[in-house]
Design brief:
Elements: E1 6-11, H1 22-26, H2 29-44, E2 53-58, E3 79-83, H3 90-97, E4 105-109, E5 113-119, E6 146-149, H4 154-164, E7 170-174, E8 199-203, E9 206-208, H5 232-251
């Protein structure tokens, strides 16, 4: 594997009891050990020095925050395609920017910023669950919910990508054909724009869209969940900054 230059992985996860329950799936120990350890140790570390193209999708659930996943740096990486990765910490953006000397293509397919988390678990100093193996409210957990809010917005991410990825020649971001389970094979057809699911919250083990406005409805259990960010114009302007930087670079 150490000689591989291109690696494409679509990860599928077990449907516990066949009921499609996301909280039940999050209670699988193997899920956390794979994304937290085995994916990096057994798949990515052996190829990271020579890898030029990485395409990493999670078909059934978001990864990054829960299950927690810290990806290694790839010193020769030219193309990075992510599907279903959630961004909840500035360090994840820093990780992308760490490839500035080589990265030419970036694809973010259904990769939301997690603006808030409410979870029945104790959080560590970095706001990650210390014991994430729960089954939401169906377990009868006695742990009181913990919560945190992440203030970064896509305008912040795009602005830093525009200035930090000095060799970037292509960016595509949006929401592919996830409902038909064809986002992975159709990743090259993904356009570039803003998508409604670009902000999410994790409430009691369920990924939900933040409520809209003061009177917006919300079907989660969080009594005061974060509202959907009112920054569409700013997000779009920042994305245009990335596209303008790429156009100048390619044109020059």
């Amino acid at each position: 594997m150490s000689r591989l230059r291109k690696l494409e992985l679509q990860i599928t996860t077990e449907d516990v009891d066949g009921d499609g329950s996301l909280p039940a799936n999050l209670g699988k120990k193997e899920l956390h050990s794979f994304f937290g350890q085995r994916l990096v140790q057994e798949w990515l570390e052996p190829v990271r020095n020579n890898l030029t193209h990485l395409k990493l999708y999670s078909r059934d659930m978001y990864f990054g925050y829960l299950p927690k996943c810290h990806l290694p740096t790839f010193p020769a990486l030219r193309s990075l395609m992510l599907g279903g990765m959630s961004f909840s910490h500035n360090e994840q953006l820093t990780w992308i920017l760490s490839h500035s000397n080589t990265l030419e293509e970036l694809v973010l397919d259904n990769c939301p910023i997690v603006i808030g988390v409410r979870i029945p678990s104790t959080l560590d100093s970095d706001n990650y669950p210390i014991e994430p193996l729960f089954n939401s409210s169906t377990t009868g957990s006695i742990l009181a919910p913990s919560s945190f809010v992440y203030s970064a917005r896509w305008r912040d991410y795009f602005s830093q990508l525009a200035t930090g990825l000095v060799k970037l020649r292509s960016i595509r971001c949006g929401f592919g054909d996830w409902y038909d389970n064809t986002a992975f094979p159709k990743s090259k057809e993904l356009g570039t724009g803003l998508w409604a699911q670009r902000y999410r919250i994790l409430d009691d083990g369920e990924w939900r869209r933040p409520r809209f406005g003061e009177d917006g409805s919300y079907d989660g259990k969080w009594s005061d969940p974060p509202m959907y960010p009112d920054c569409t114009d700013e997000d779009w302007i920042a994305l245009c900054e990335v596209k303008a930087a790429i156009a100048f670079r390619v044109g020059g």
